[in-house]
Write a structure and sequence with these properties.
CATH superfamily of one domain: ApbE-like superfamily
Largest sheet: 8 strands, antiparallel
Number of strands: 15
Distance between the termini: 39 Å
Oligomer: single chain
Radius of gyration: 20 Å
Structural class: alpha+beta
Number of helices: 10
Order of helices and strands: HEEHHEHHHEEHEEEEEEEEHHEEH
Shape: globular
């Protein structure tokens, strides 16, 4: 499994869709558990297999993603890589290599803010498999963990499917693997002839085509209220979307407080500290869910000003909910405005 990714969530979107399902043209639906959360698939096409048969295939596919990339499984490919001392080289699966390759590209594009080697810091702050510490780590502990991070020590050979490290590194793909899982399920549906579908894992979403009424998929973005960690949810914005991946990253579900100080799970790879700014959530729309997933995470870490600059430079459709003294303020990238105007 993966940690419950609290930088959700458009999972409200699925609840909203369920409440608004059409009859008699209701979609076929399958649901299940994966990566420490849940998944949902809705489709309107006749794909030649029953929903039960499709669910079996989806479950097998997602179990394989976990076998390759879950840090919560001690014998997964990624755990085997993390457990070995450097220098070390390991053969990996093609899907694992694809995710590492995309992670390397996005590391460069975000100026280092999307860094899958921050695992030692994630674990140090208690957001990894080992659970929460009694007290926040000391400055010395943070600096020691920082020295064990950095993509420069990770090398990928896609031709030989080999992943190597020249220094101690702990790779954590939880900020991109759910989105990648969504894309794999979407590819499975398309291979079976489906063109009108929604796939969701833990709030990360990919949609294609239309409903029978020729309407786009109606999705919702959650308000980043801190009491959402206790189960309270409210909708900030409703979107109509098709043929895209969408992911929301927020600081309002996975955090802890010590002596009145709030520590979020989003770790700044440059300081080693949990991000501390007014940006409550970021929603990104991209061609794939994996890409949206990773970019939303990076933008949440870097904060509104840098995220808007990144969105402008790379024409990224991004939507920001910022906390102010007067409540929440919405900001949009130019690409987002263009898409929804």
């Amino acid at each position: 499994m993966f940690p419950l990714k609290a930088y959700l969530t458009a999972v409200v979107a699925v609840l909203f869709l369920a409440a608004c399902s059409e009859t008699p043209n209701s979609p076929s639906v399958i649901q299940g558990n994966t990566m420490g959360t849940t998944y949902s698939v809705r489709y309107y096409d006749d794909i030649g297999v029953s929903s039960d048969e499709l669910k079996q295939e989806v479950d097998i596919l997602l179990v394989e993603v976990n076998r390759q990339m879950s840090t919560y499984q001690g014998r997964s490919e990624i755990s085997q890589f993390n457990q070995q001392n450097a220098p070390y080289e390991q053969k990996i699966s093609a899907e694992f290599a694809d995710v590492v390759f995309l992670s390397q590209q996005l590391y460069e594009m975000t100026g280092g803010y999307f860094d899958v080697t921050v695992g030692p810091l994630v674990n140090l702050w208690g957001f990894g498999p080992d659970g929460r510490p009694v007290n926040p780590p000391s400055e010395q502990e943070v600096q020691a963990a920082l020295e064990k991070t950095g993509m420069d020590a990770i090398k990928l050979d896609k031709l030989t499917l080999s992943l190597s490290k020249s220094a101690h590194r702990y790779v954590d793909l939880s900020a991109i693997a759910k989105g990648f899982g969504v894309d794999l399920v979407a590819q499975l549906l398309e291979a079976k002839g489906a063109h009108n579908y929604l796939v969701e894992i833990g709030g990360e979403i990919r949609v294609s085509g239309m409903k029978p009424s020729q309407q786009e998929w109606k999705l919702a973005v959650e308000t980043p209220e801190t009491d959402a960690a206790l189960g309270a949810r409210s909708v900030q914005k409703i979107l109509n979307l098709t043929d895209a991946g969408m992911a929301t990253s927020g600081d309002y579900r996975n955090f802890f407080e010590v002596d009145g100080t709030r520590y979020s799970h989003t770790i700044d790879p440059f300081t080693g500290m949990p991000s501390a700014h007014s940006l409550g959530s970021v929603t990104v729309i991209a061609d794939t869910c994996a890409r949206a997933d990773a970019i939303a995470t990076a933008m949440l870490v870097m904060g509104t000003e840098k995220a808007l600059a990144l969105a402008k430079e790379h024409n990224i459709a991004a939507y920001f909910i910022v906390r102010t003294d007067n409540g929440f303020q919405e900001q949009y990238s130019e690409a987002w405005k263009t898409r929804f105007n």
